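Changelog-adjacent note: as of this version, every example in the card shows the full chain rather than a window. The one below runs 403 residues end to end.
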Amino acid sequence: MSALSKVPGVDRSWPALRPVVADLAIAASVCAGGLTHEVVDAGDVGASLDAVDFVTCAGAAALILLRRRAPLTVLVVAVIAAVWSLIPDDGPGVLRVAAIIVLYTVASTSGRRTAWTAGAVTAAALYVTAAITSPGPWYDGENLELIAWAGVATAAGDAVRSRRAYTLARQERATALRDRAERAEHALEEEARRRVIEERMRIARELHDVMAHHIAVINVQAGVAAHLLRDNPTGAQEALTHVRRGAASVLDELSSILSVIRRPDEAASTTDPLPTLDDLRRLIADFAKVGLEIEWHTAGAPRPVAPTIGLAAYRIIQESLTNAHRYGRHQRATLRLTYERDALRIEILNDIDTDRPTGTRRGHGTVGMRERAAAVGGTIEIGPTADGQFRVHATLRTEQAEP
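Full-length structure tokens:
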């Protein structure tokens, strides 16, 4: 047994061996019953077991053991053998039993039409042979018994096949439902994860856009105050006033953002005012107070745009002017707004400070501007120009806001 277990390619688990064990048990039972019947019958007539009895038992066992490999082929052989066993009046009945068992296998593994056709042919072949060869009348009980056994075997096999198909269908349906539920759960988890990431990025953009301008003002004015503190106290005091005003604005806007984040209901946050293009004058005035000179041009007929477009435009302008104030050379910037039929174009230009190392303009603000433009279906170009200026050019589509 240990040597056989080492042979590759052979499954010796119990589910695989169970049909083989069952066939061996059935074949042994049929052979034992057939030989016992022959011994009892031989005792009545004074005969004994002979080689034919053992050969027919071996043939019946072979048919039973091979029935799962080729059911229809084995059934044809079994019916021929059963018909042969009916020709002598006292022929061995073990072959007829084997034919009925093989018929059950055909009915349990084939379609309903094939099963009942095989059952009818088997019953007809056995009954006609028995009616011709038996000394009794054609309606003898032993002859009709062959038809009954064939019908029982066919019905039992068909019932087993139907039950097996029903069970398999239920298992497949349960598996499909489980897979569907797992996919739905995975999709929900992915959607929740995506929303969390989007919300985190939105909060990060808002915090950066809101704080960057005021922190830049505080940084610049604090440096101005430190420079003027000894020689020009009045100028230093004015710079510190800007620092104090910027710090107060940071605290107010930070408190507003945190209050919105802490609210459990998302609808309540929609009541908080968001900046739009109407607030540009106040924004430019704030930059003017800290020394950034802005040349503002508007082309086309100004018109209302969708709130999302207006917020994106405001934040892009705010970040661009903040960078111009922090990194520009002459504290001057040019802002151009162009209202076209289906788009709003924004262009901000400022001189590049050549004393600063390259790459200092790259940071979260640039990433935020690109994300805001992409979020509303727009495009943006950020980078230096050939004439020594830094240019931000955004195109935001506005056709969905048209009346």
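Structural remarks: The radius of gyration is 47 Å.
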